[in-house]
Amino acid sequence: MLFLFLCMLTVGLVTSFVQKYILRIKEPNIEELWKELHEQDWFKDLLEKQEVKMILDASKETGLLRDPYYVRKIIDQEGYRDGFIEYIYDNSYK
């Protein structure tokens, strides 16, 4: 069991090393993604409501909007966007 755990840990570290130093894959810049998100019409509509705006600001600090990969998904994919909007409305009107 310990051997299996150490093998999985080693594979993860090697994969991370290859992505970071050999392939030079960078983490997306969250500030640029937030700027792109603020340009979206559906996001502008969300920001007009004060209750929702408070939830979105808090989400940038500690929530879903802190993850650059999730922000990219809600910008690009309508299904993720609809789920995010529903999540924000559910949390803001409790």
Structural class category: mainly alpha
> Termini separation (Å)?
45 Å
Strand fraction band?
under 5%
Query: How many beta-strand elements?
Result: 0
Low-pLDDT windows of residues: none
- How does the overall form come out from the CA principal axes? elongated
Q: What would the average pLDDT be, to the nearest integer? A: 89
Number of helices: 6
Keywords:
94 residues, mainly alpha, 0% strand
Detailed description of the structure:
- By secondary structure, this protein is mainly alpha-helical.
- It has a domain at 29-92.
- Helices cover 79% and strands 0% of the residues.
- It is elongated, with a radius of gyration of 18 Å.
- The termini are far apart.
Short overview:
79% of the residues lie in helices and 0% in strands. It has a domain of 64 residues. It has 94 residues and is an all-alpha fold.
Layout of helices and strands, plus pairs?
Elements: H1 2-22, H2 30-38, H3 41-47, H4 50-62, H5 68-76, H6 78-92
Helix pairs in contact: 2-5, 4-6, 5-6
